[in-house]
Design a protein that fits this description.
The complex is a heterodimer. By secondary structure, chain A is α+β, with helices and mostly antiparallel strands. Helices cover about 15% and strands about 65% of the residues of chain A. Chain A contains three helices and ten strands. The longest helix of chain A is centred in the N-terminal third of the chain and has 17 residues, at about 1-20. Chain A starts with a helix and ends with a strand. In chain A, about 35% of the residues are buried. The mean pLDDT of chain A is about 90. The termini of chain B are far apart. The relative contact order of chain B is 0.06. The longest helix of chain B is centred in the N-terminal third of the chain and has 27 residues, at about 1-30. Residues about 1-10 of chain B have low confidence and may be disordered. In chain B, the strands form 13 sheets. Chain B has a five-stranded mixed sheet with strand order 2-8-7-4-5, with no helix packed on it. In chain B, strands 12-11-14-15 form a four-stranded antiparallel sheet, with no helix packed on it. A four-stranded antiparallel sheet of chain B has the order 19-18-21-22, with no helix packed on it. The chains are: A alpha+beta, B mainly beta. The interface of A and B includes residues 54, 94 and 234 of A.
Chain lengths: ~240, ~600
């Protein structure tokens, strides 16, 4: 059965590839990010701090960017895109005598394969159902800085990373401006299918050997994605 | 087809530009953290008022003797107390990061004298700033004391005798952490004998046996400070032997200052024991005679027997173990000859030193080291009146030294049958002596040798070496085995022959004493004639020519006879019968035994 399904997918995409229209697209929008582990980590990190810093940023919604290449045939499209997400958190306190801050900056790099199916079309507006499945590489930079009366006591940083898998279903509306350029709007949700533990930076093989047996803090990029985009296609 | 190709040519650079644009956009559009929390601060807080709940320091002057602790507890009207510091002369010696605790400081690390002690209490500033939260801002409350450091506790404890008991007293410990004084006795396995707040303690068990006392101060922090110690040494030589006007020897000692602690005294002389409860007894009469060995023990039994008494009874015994007589110790060797160089002075050469001992006072009047150019002298003799000294430095070299001018005369290669440098030779008061030699045994001779001019005069040849030779103090007369010679203007002539033991008078060379068996005869040498003679049946020890007295030994007595007629002047009773004429000498009414003990003839 598994073989039959794989064979069907391959034949399907070969046929569609032959009759394709290639589109280069770029999408940007706002994403929300769950990041519950890192939020908790930050909270615990500062809860006993005698300076009593406040959390002034706690992984807020922020822009994401996603270029893509799409192969279109009739009502079905598929392609590849690369998502770039970022957010962060900070605990901070400062006054005339000094400053303390604890920064936690997360960047997600998400190459994915996607498919689109036309659901509905009226006049020039087309409505698609769209789904991404891809890898997710997360890079988190922790940075702590502390000075009192111009004397710096702490200024240190550390980078940690993780790998994961994600899926992102969304609904997309497309409006062609001319023969070559479309504008698009979409709304979707990012699911982390698998999120590996955060460790200090290393190569992927070493990471997965480690991640197989370890558990720990993770990045959770789960959240809504609302974006606008445009695409240029060759016919 | 043509259109597509041209379209692709156009698209390549466009796509590159688009890609570059996207990369730059991505990098510049990553999330940046720009938010800060500005801490609200109070820039003009009111200083707090510090109140003292507890502070174990004196009001104005603090005394530090050793390690010192001071508990404290402060309260603040407003800002939280961060801690307190203690400073001596502006140097931090202790700090506590709390509003209460205990300071520790040491007098040991500070010089004796007066110093400034400062207590600083730190509170938060109250601004609420980061620096304030970390203790980087504070209000400081200070207070100063006069600090007196006294590390020298060596003279803190002293003792006196009070009402017949030992009273130990000590200086006051002035610090505020005082609890009590602890008095220990014994320098090891010490025993706590008193806990008091007074400044003295009476040990009613002490009877002069020697003890070590240590006074400690017990402090509020539970620790003790050694406040001082006192070592009372036993007076081992507290017993003395003396002789009264009736020539009776008695032992005496000073009254024990702690007499009320004494129960009884026990006297033991030889095998006889006697006990007394009269603590005022300070004399024990004996029936000892001169030179008897006195083995006396005084035992002091205390009223209250302390632990010491149980396991060290010997501490309560005082002994006197010496021969009866006045201990003069002129030399350590009884055979070291003394020379009576004047009526009241005897001299000897001992340990490279000429010692002159005055008989009337029984004390040395001079000790003069004498060497020849750093060389020790051996076989040393003094001339009869102490004007010259003669000694060997190495065989056969001898040196004569004029003691009045300190001039030395070295004589080398003097023939002598003396086989070593320690052989003694007579020397007269004019620096002449008799030298014996044997170039060949068949032709032995004796010469008068002048150590000053280094000239010799042979006056007597003999195949045998003389056993006994003597030269008169003025160097004019010589006697060799009884034959008397007279040297006059370089001419030597034999003038007499005597038999027995003979001596020249030290101050009159023309007089010769001869003891032959029991007959003592005094001769005039030149012209030779008998002056007087008497019978002397006792063993003659020596003659004090200056006082015309002869010391003799008889049955259980020493006897002094007159040199004029042999009459008995004095008998000194003895337990033994003295026989050794080398051990007893009479000089100026003092009998010396073995150069060690003296007896004044009254």
């Amino acid at each position: 059965m598994k073989k039959k399904v794989l064979l069907f997918i391959a034949v399907f995409h070969i046929i569609t590839f032959k009759a394709q229209t290639i589109k280069y697209g770029f999408e940007s929008g706002i994403g929300t990010y769950q990041m519950s582990d890192l939020r908790e980590y930050l909270r615990v990190s500062i809860q006993d701090n005698v300076l009593q810093p406040k959390i002034v940023a706690n992984f807020p919604a922020y822009l994401y960017f996603q270029p893509s290449i799409l192969f279109h045939h009739k009502s079905h499209s598929w392609g590849f895109n690369v998502g770039l997400m970022s957010t962060g958190a900070r605990a901070s306190i400062r006054d005339y005598s000094g400053e303390y801050r604890y920064d936690n900056k997360a960047v997600g790099f998400a190459p994915a394969f996607f498919e689109e199916l036309l659901l509905y079309k009226k006049d020039k507006i087309s409505l698609y159902i769209h789904a991404d499945v891809g890898l997710l590489y997360s890079n988190v930079q922790l940075k702590e800085y502390f000075n009192v009366n111009t004397q710096v006591f702490t200024d240190k940083s550390m980078k940690i990373m993780s790998f994961g898998l994600f899926a992102k279903p969304e609904v997309k509306a497309v409006y062609p401006i001319n023969d070559n350029i479309d504008v698009e709007a979409n709304i979707g949700y990012h699911f982390d299918i698998y999120s590996g533990p955060l460790v200090q930076e290393t190569d992927p093989i070493t990471y997965f050997r480690y991640a197989l047996f370890q558990n720990g803090k993770k990045t959770q990029w789960n959240g809504i994605r609302i974006g606008l985009g445009c695409s240029y296609h060759f016919k | 087809m043509t259109r597509k190709t041209s379209s692709l040519k156009f698209e390549k650079p466009v796509m590159n530009i688009i890609c570059l644009f996207l990369i730059l956009t991505f990098n510049s559009c990553l999330y940046e953290l720009n938010e800060f929390y500005d801490n609200p601060v109070n820039k003009d807080p009111t200083p707090p008022t510090i109140s003292v709940v507890q502070l174990d320091l004196a009001v104005d002057t603090v005394y530090a003797y050793g390690y010192h602790t001071a508990a404290f507890n402060f309260k603040t009207s407003n800002q939280e107390i961060q801690g307190a510091k203690l400073l001596i002369d502006n140097v931090v010696v202790d700090s506590v990061a709390s509003s209460n605790g205990v300071f520790q400081f040491s007098g040991y690390s500070t010089n004796n004298g007066i110093h400034k002690l400062t207590l600083q209490v730190f509170t938060k500033s109250g601004t609420g700033s980061i620096a304030d939260k970390l203790g980087g801002e504070s209000f400081v409350n200070s207070r100063n004391w006069v600090l007196v450091v006294d590390k020298d506790q060596s003279k803190n404890v002293s003792n006196t005798a009070k009402n017949g008991f030992l009273n130990i007293s000590w200086k006051k410990y002035k610090s505020s952490d005082f609890v009590s004084y602890l008095v220990y006795r014994g320098n090891w396995e010490g025993e706590l004998i008193c806990t008091t707040q007074n400044l003295n303690f009476t040990d009613s068990t002490y009877v002069n046996e020697g003890a070590f006392y240590t006074v400690y101060v017990k402090k509020k922090d539970g620790y003790t400070l050694e406040w001082g110690s006192l070592y009372l040494a036993r007076n081992y030589s507290m017993i003395h032997l003396d002789i009264d006007n009736n020539n009776q020897y008695y032992l005496w000692w000073n009254k024990i200052p702690y007499y009320n602690a004494v129960k009884s005294l026990t006297f033991k002389l030889g095998t006889k024991t006697q006990q007394s409860t009269n603590v005022n007894d300070t004399v024990f009469k004996t029936n000892l005679h001169f030179n008897d060995y006195c083995d006396f023990t005084l035992t002091i039994e205390p009223q209250k027997k302390n632990r010491n008494y149980q396991w060290k009874l010997s501490d309560f015994n005082y002994t006197f173990s010496e021969s009866a007589g006045i201990h003069v110790n002129i030399t350590s060797y009884w055979y070291n000859p003394l020379t009576q160089i004047s009526k009241d002075i005897v001299a000897c050469f001992y340990n490279d030193t000429i010692r002159k001992f005055q008989l009337s006072t029984l004390k040395f009047i001079s000790k003069q080291e004498l060497k020849y150019k750093g060389n020790r002298l051996y076989g040393v003799t003094l001339s009869p009146n102490g004007k010259f000294i003669l000694g060997g430095i190495d065989y056969p070299n001898r040196v004569a030294i004029n003691l009045e001018t300190n001039q030395s005369y070295l004589s080398t290669n003097i023939l002598s049958y003396a086989v070593n440098v320690s052989q003694s030779f007579y020397i007269s008061d004019v620096g002449t002596g008799v030298v014996k030699g044997y170039p060949s045994f068949e032709n032995a001779y004796e010469s008068v040798f002048d150590y000053i001019t280094h000239q010799g005069y042979t006056y007597h040849y003999s195949k045998s070496i003389a056993d006994s030779i003597l030269i008169s103090p003025d160097g004019q007369y010589y006697i060799s085995d009884g034959y008397g010679y007279y040297k006059n203007n370089g001419t030597i002539s034999s003038i007499f022959y005597v038999k027995g033991r003979y001596e020249f008078f030290p101050f009159d060379s023309n007089k010769l004493m001869v003891l032959n068996d029991a007959v003592l005869t005094v001769y005039q040498c030149y012209p030779f004639k008998k002056l007087w003679e008497f019978n002397q049946p006792d063993i003659m020890f020596n003659i004090d020519y200056y006082n015309n007295e002869i010391l003799c030994g008889s049955t259980n007595k020493l006897r002094i006879r007159s040199l004029k007629d042999g009459s008995i002047i004095n008998d000194i009773p003895m337990t033994i019968t003295p026989t050794s004429w080398e051990e007893y000498f009479l000089y100026n009414h003092v009998i010396l035994y073995a150069n060690q003990y003296a007896y004044r003839v009254k």
